[in-house]
Design goal:
single chain, about 425 residues, three-stranded antiparallel sheet, 18 helices, 11 strands, iron, Cyt_P450_CS, Cyt_P450_sf
Length: about 425
């Protein structure tokens, strides 16, 4: 890897760095907008930290999802997660136009603001059922943060309830650095979704017919029908890749968003009390949470198809670039003259890049916002004495990968 910055690579994604990444990234951002870095899997990348350069990188025509220019570097660290059928490839997130445009169009309608609003009563019902089942002390991640978005995306896709408990384990593994466990998790998820697709390609089962009668056609069935019609030229690999992406992006991001929100509120109980007293602040507060500590800490990788400049740094063809969305979001407030390290649920018009920018802006953003508003408001309303059961400095964080969030969060509810 080459460029104008010649310092030793920053070993950024150690577990210690991940735990304290907002502070550590702010220190790096003060030194410059682009830095040489090393991911947990050993791959060297260019890390973009500032808002201005983040927007440029996320829309630059030379930075693409086609990994061909970086094949040698990726192979050296065993990176395989974007391979269709065994990893997390064959979908819109890992595609460039025109394939990206075609694949995104296939599922865009299911996540429109209007369709999302129709899910609010069901999301509230799921939240209430989970809250009803809680004892006096629980791990909030396992009892609430994880099962709520898993239930929502599973119902959208038409996945049977008795199979959903696997999703959390498989996706967490699939998003971790290359290892036997990572490859096994990604492969298990691909095999399961392949089986669900085959179920819809063959004679419909009574269980599938019952679900259709209750809630109409599920999203996975609609994708299968598009494949059968051939009107969108959807290949078998793209069908499977899209299904796997919807499972992963449809719940893992929200699981960790709920976790980062609750850690922030447990650190600042005054902010939780303010939301209880003024529930009308919740929509704006969710934007502030997304700015303050987003669950998708960095983008997936982009590959330089030609030489370019970012923030005074020369990026060469074949170099790998990642954008640190959390750092860029805090930079927005700092550039506006505010205190980016202070959580303020009453902040008006909080701006951020938590859902990305450009053509890969998160399609599920309306759903994530809705789930967060309902889940957090319901939890705060139900349990006014909610407090941590362990010192917050002892809460374990995801040690590697693009996600940020607590792995567990023990709390006392009463």
């Amino acid at each position: 890897m080459s460029g104008d910055v010649t310092s030793t690579p920053v070993l950024t994604f150690t577990p210690e760095f991940k735990t304290h990444s907002p502070r550590r990234l702010a220190e790096l951002r003060a030194l410059g907008p682009v830095h040489r870095a090393q991911l947990a899997n050993g791959l060297q990348v260019w890390m973009v930290l500032s808002e201005q350069e983040a927007r440029r990188a996320l829309t630059h025509s030379a930075l693409r999802k086609d990994a061909s220019p970086a094949e040698e570097a990726l192979a050296a660290v065993g990176f395989t997660t974007n391979r269709p059928g065994v990893g997390l490839g064959g979908n819109m997130l890992e595609s460039d136009p025109p394939a990206h445009t075609r694949l995104r169009r296939l599922v865009a309608g299911a996540f429109s603001p209007e369709r999302t609003r129709q899910l609010a009563p069901r999301i509230q019902q799921i939240a209430d059922e989970l809250l009803d089942a809680m004892g006096d002390e629980v791990d909030l991640v396992e009892a609430y943060n994880a099962p709520l978005p898993i239930a929502v995306i599973s119902e959208l896709l038409g996945v049977p309830e008795h199979d959903r408990h696997h999703f959390r384990e498989w996706t967490a593994a699939a998003l971790s650095p290359p290892s036997d466990a990572q490859r096994a998790g990604a492969l298990s998820l691909n095999r399961y979704m392949s089986d669900q697709i085959q179920l819809r390609l063959t004679e419909p089962s009574p269980d599938l017919e019952r679900r259709r009668a209750e809630r109409g056609d599920d999203l996975l069935s609609a994708l299968v029908e598009a494949r059968l019609r051939g009107d969108e030229a959807l290949s078998d690999e793209e069908l499977l890749g899209t299904a796997v992406l919807l499972v992963v992006a449809g719940h893992e991001t929200t699981v960790n968003l709920l976790g980062t929100i609750m850690v922030s509120l447990l650190r600042r109980p005054d902010q939780a009390d303010l939301l209880r007293a003024r529930p009308e602040l919740m929509p704006g507060a969710v934007e502030e949470f997304l700015r303050f500590d987003p669950s998708v800490e960095q983008t997936t990788m982009r590959y330089a198809a030609e030489d370019l400049d970012l923030g005074g740094t020369r990026i060469r063809r074949g170099d790998v670039v990642v954008v640190m969305l959390g750092s860029a979001s805090r930079d927005i407030v700092q550039r506006d003259g505010g205190d980016s390290d202070v959580l303020d649920v009453a902040r008006e018009g909080a701006r951020h890049l938590a859902f990305g920018y450009g053509i890969h802006h998160c399609l599920g953003a309306p759903l994530a916002r809705l789930e967060a508003r309902i889940a957090i408001a319901s939890l705060l309303r139900r349990f006014p004495e909610l407090r941590p059961a362990v010192p917050l400095d002892e809460v374990p964080w995801i040690p590697a990968g693009i996600m940020r969030g607590p792995r567990s969060l023990p709390v006392r509810l009463r």
